[in-house]
Design a protein that fits this description.
By secondary structure, this protein is α+β, with helices and mostly antiparallel strands. The protein folds into 4 domains: 165 residues, Immunoglobulin-like (Sandwich); 102 residues, Neutral Protease, domain 2; 173 residues, Neutral Protease Domain 2 (Neutral Protease, domain 2), CATH 1.10.390; 70 residues, no CATH class. The chain has 14 helices and 28 strands.
Length: 550
């Protein structure tokens, strides 16, 4: 058996001490691979940059060769069979839902950050012991075998787990069917816990009803309630970590809606991604990039349903849901990345710049753009007497329960099976999933079928709406509409110092600071209606609305 012990001799240093023990056979060449990325974040993270002082020894003090061969892989060789003891420090100085943090109040770490895969031993059971006596409240999303000790069936299960050891943790629990759900709270609680659990129970029940079963016998929400602004969530098979701050804001309705939204999103991942998974991710290879075209399913479906199930379960009313949908529509209304990359291409490009803005209009956001595509697909299915929820139940039964990987074509096939004219779905995927066609006309039509009107309005901000120039609070240009005259004169990162519009000639005089140079620009502005403000309004009752909401 492989054994890990995690300790923290000096919390102020923010370094964990990690001891790894395993059996070695004479003449083996054992590769120790530290993950370069983690599930749920398809971006190289290079966790090895947080590791220091890697050493190896054995009880008999026999010679052992430990050689680093890549940035995050080491090889061990020895002449005799022995028990290997590897030990090292890992810096836990980043607080988000996927990283690690140490201070005087808690030890928190996602094990994918710091645990080696011993190649050739990946299917062996792994024991984890926490030697953290000063942090008595200990949680680990694995099966507990004794005090401060847990067991993972194999390496893939190990690195899907989270450790939280703290001086104080509050918790609530509820049970649905055969599954126990625990909600752990670290930090100050500024809300009614019983009401919050009532909401969790409501959308959890609705999700289990629609999928037909829950993947695990126990599921743990770990909430890091922080004193400063923060918002992040990461899915795991047996739980989720959600960081949210400032915790004091949770007295306000809108902040609580955000916390409920991310909670539902991450719970949906317990089925979709944690079990319904592209074949490229079975198993995860954490040593290098793993490309997939399935971003629409991974995050588009989850983003769409993460909010919709709050509506379906009664946690949100329709105006509240539309307010959150409006934000997604607004985000996509000002993004023209669909002209340059399909959502399938953007899914692959997560590994390039999928989690940052990147260069203007290069790609689409698989979360928000994917959610709008899914809404349109759901409406197509509803008009055929089915739904996207039924499609995902089919994905669960055919791929999640047997835990076998799917291809994006399988998702398309599940939809096609539920419509009278499958070529309609093929054409839709050609245009909006594989292709680069504007989804907004279809979105407007789909929402119209629900009795929801998409209205475009414009404020008095002439620079934005007439000139097509987006600036931030420091008047630095962030985006320029590609169809605006200004696109040929201004540059992103220009700081706008002054503007003057000549009403007689329609000329715009703009002074900017460009990398230390003051430049005066004078050009004729062919005024347009750029970057509209989106409003979603409920019109007359539509028959599909009731079935969509329930």
């Amino acid at each position: 058996m492989i054994h890990y012990t995690i300790s923290c001799p000096n919390p102020a240093s923010q370094f964990l001490r990690i001891d790894l023990y395993f059996s070695y056979k004479a003449g083996e060449q054992v590769h120790l691979q530290l993950p370069a990325w983690r599930a749920g974040r398809y971006q190289i993270a290079n966790y090895a940059q947080n590791l220091r002082g890697l050493n190896v020894q054995n009880e008999e003090d026999l010679p052992i060769s430990l050689k680093k061969i890549t940035k995050d892989c080491w090889v061990i060789e020895a002449e005799k069979s022995m028990e290997i003891h590897l030990f090292y420090d890992y810096w836990a100085g980043k607080m988000d839902a996927g990283s690690a943090w140490v201070d005087d109040q808690q030890i928190y770490v996602n094990l994918v950050n710091c645990c080696f895969e011993i190649q050739g031993k990946s299917e062996e059971a792994i024991e984890v012991h926490l030697d953290l006596p000063n942090y008595p409240k200990q949680i680990l999303t694995l099966k507990q075998t004794k005090t401060s000790t847990w067991m993972a069936e194999n390496y893939q299960v190990l690195v899907d787990a989270t450790v939280l050891a703290a001086k104080k943790v509050e918790y609530e629990t509820y049970t649905i069917g055969n599954t126990q759900f625990l909600a752990w709270f670290h930090g100050e609680i500024h809300f009614d816990r019983s009401q919050f659990i009532k909401h969790l129970h409501a959308f959890t029940t609705q999700l289990i009803t629609d999928f037909g079963s829950f993947p695990e016998p126990q599921y743990q929400f770990i909430f890091q309630l922080l004193p400063y602004p923060h918002y992040h969530g990461v899915e795991h098979r047996r739980g989720t970590v959600i960081t949210f701050g400032p915790a004091s804001a949770l007295t306000e309705k809108e902040a609580m809606e955000e916390l409920l939204g991310i909670s539902c999103h991450e719970l949906y991942h317990a089925w979709n991604v944690c079990r319904i998974r592209p074949k490229e991710f079975l198993p995860y290879d954490f040593s290098k990039e793993t490309y997939s075209q399935a971003g629409l399913v991974l995050e588009g479906v989850t983003t769409y349903f993460g909010d919709l199930y709050l509506l379906k379960s009664g946690v949100y009313d329709l105006p509240t849901y539309l307010r959150h949908l409006e934000k997604i529509v607004q985000r996509e209304a000002v993004n023209y990345g669909w002209k340059n990359a399909s959502i399938q291409e953007s899914s692959i490009d997560l590994w390039l710049d999928g989690y940052v803005a990147g260069i203007p209009d290069r790609k689409v956001n698989i979360y928000s753009h994917g959610a709008l595509i899914c809404l349109c697909l759901d409406l197509i299915l509803l008009q055929e007497g089915s739904s996207l929820a039924e499609v995902m139940k089919g994905m669960w039964e055919n791929f999640g329960l047997p835990f076998k990987g799917y291809e994006i074509q399988d998702f398309e096939n599940e939809i096609s099976l539920r419509v009278s004219h499958p070529e309609k779905i093929s054409n839709f995927f050609d245009a909006y999933v594989r292709g680069k066609k504007d989804i907004f006309p279809v979105l407007k039509e789909s929402l119209g079928a629900l009795g929801i009107e998409v209205k475009k309005t414009y404020s008095e901000n002439g620079l934005l709406h007439q000139a097509g120039i987006q600036v931030n609070g420091q008047q630095v240009v962030q985006l320029i509409h590609p169809e605006s005259s200004a696109y040929h004169y201004l540059m992103c990162s220009d700081q706008v110092l002054s503007t003057n519009q000549n009403s007689e000639t329609s000329n715009w005089e703009i002074e900017v600071l460009r990398k230390g140079r003051k430049i005066k620009l004078n050009f004729v502005l062919e005024e347009g209606s750029y970057y509209p403000l989106i409003q979603l309004e409920i019109g007359g009752h539509a028959p599909l609305l009731t079935s969509w909401m329930h």
